[in-house]
Amino acid sequence: MSQSDLHSRYRYLVFDIHGILLGRTEPAGHLPAVAVMSRLRAAGYGIRFLTNTSSVSRTIMAAALEDVGIAADPSEVFTAATTVAHYLRHVESPQRLFVIGSDELRQEITRVGGTAILWSGPDEADVVVVSRDPSLGQAILEPLCRNEGVRLIATCRDSRFPNGDGIDIGPGPTVELVERTLGKTAKVLGKPNHYVLTAVMELTPKELAATLVIGDSPDQDIALANRAGASSVLLSTPGSAVSRETDNSAPRPDRVIVTLDELLEFL
């Protein structure tokens, strides 16, 4: 396949944020993320940013990218909170809702759902959205246990997030605690669920065939692309065990690269 054929194949680029554009330093001698993203912008690609976090707004996440020199509009940023809010508005609404998680998650649901969202306590809710809450205890879990018909929605199962200065605990432990306590399995709407691509970003099958997902997690980013019918690139973290020969049991990317500027070689 020629270089021009490769370029014409992709119209949309979906970037995982943490570990790709934030919280990662490119090896010496390679272009930093800001330079790579600037060239891709200039080439006219439709760029989207995707994260499983639900505790930071789209505006704040776009500002964090801008702080490191990467141009980003809030409308291009898609968080797990955005995805859950969209699902509640368009699939589950109206309902009595209770949220275990951050104020930002509640605010995003309110912004998207508006008057269609009916807030409730844990003992009366039809749907409970579960995200990260390290302080979750019996005051919430006990009334939840009495609510036999409640349905569980989780933002994601990530056990941790890289934050640039270290590692933050993710929603995974909270989700597992709620599931174990209630004996129910949550519907997970964050990556690798492809709902964000097909419903929230509204990419058609034809557009998905022209979409490339760039991420650092086979189980999250690569699985997301595979489920949606998009292509994928796995970016290895320097010093990690991920290499160009990936685990046969993991979702398979179309390409594995070890530096971000390798994208420019085929895009």
Give the spatial strand order of the biggest sheet.
3-2-1-11-12-13
Number of strands: 13
Report the oligomer: single chain
Proportion of beta-strand residues = 15-25%
The parts where pLDDT drops under 50 for at least 5 residues are 1-6
Distance between the termini: 12 Å
The profile of the biggest β sheet is:
6 strands, parallel
What number is the mean pLDDT? Answer: 89
Number of helices: 10
Amount of helix: 25-40%
Provide the succession of SSEs. Answer: HEHEHEHEHEEHEEEHEHHEHEE
Kindly provide the radius of gyration, computed on alpha-carbon positions and rounded to a whole number of angstroms.
19 Å
Approximate shape: elongated
Structural class: alpha/beta
